[in-house]
Design goal:
The chain has 243 residues and is of the alpha/beta class. Helices cover 44% and strands 20% of the residues. About 7% of the residues have low confidence.
Length: 243
Amino acid sequence: MNSIKANKIALLCPVRGRPDYLYDYCESIAETASRLDRLVLQFYVDTDDPLAKQYQMLEAELRGRYPDKFEISFLYGDPIGTPGAINQMAALSEADIFMISNDDLNFVTPGWDARVDQEAAKYPDGIYNIWFNEGYFGDMLSCFPFVSRVWYEALGYVAPVLFEHFVVDHWIHHLGRFLKRNVFVEDVAISHRHADAENSGLQFAWQEEGFAKRRMDRDNAVFEKSEHYLRLDAQILQQVIDG
């Protein structure tokens, strides 16, 4: 029986305005991952973030808190949008697998990283879209997906830069659906603060301010006009599958 590869996994996490979230985020990873030494936690901080200096201080603190566990990497750059930040981090990474992550996530199920390895091993060509159960969308949408380096190098991106912030997960989910390579791991749980808040009936700040809603409307409108490009990218990945 062949052993399952322990992949190097990079968690790509754009951050802004809430450095305190990273304490729970990092601790949840430290408490649940089975192989911390193969994880890379990557953060992109906008240089115009009013709290950028706090992130710089936090970077040193987190490295001191987890000196022999996972690798921690902070990238400081221009505000280029969430997809751009994700791709910048991926370009600097040597990981085998990339997760599009959020600072408001907590990892719940022990051994989640080993489950990624197990599911990825079922697709030797490296084309898959794996995601966990965040308690809200379930199998309907691949929130916080894992994709491989093969996927990334074939397309030239992890997150499509057509969008400012939203619907990246929709794009990846549709690619996986076209290819029949969507893999929902129902029994591995992650907790998403925004999903938890919506389940409780709380109203988000962006719903009151309207700013993020305008961005969401814009990204949704772009998505609706982009099926041709989505299918072209699916064809690229299908070629990898076909060899």
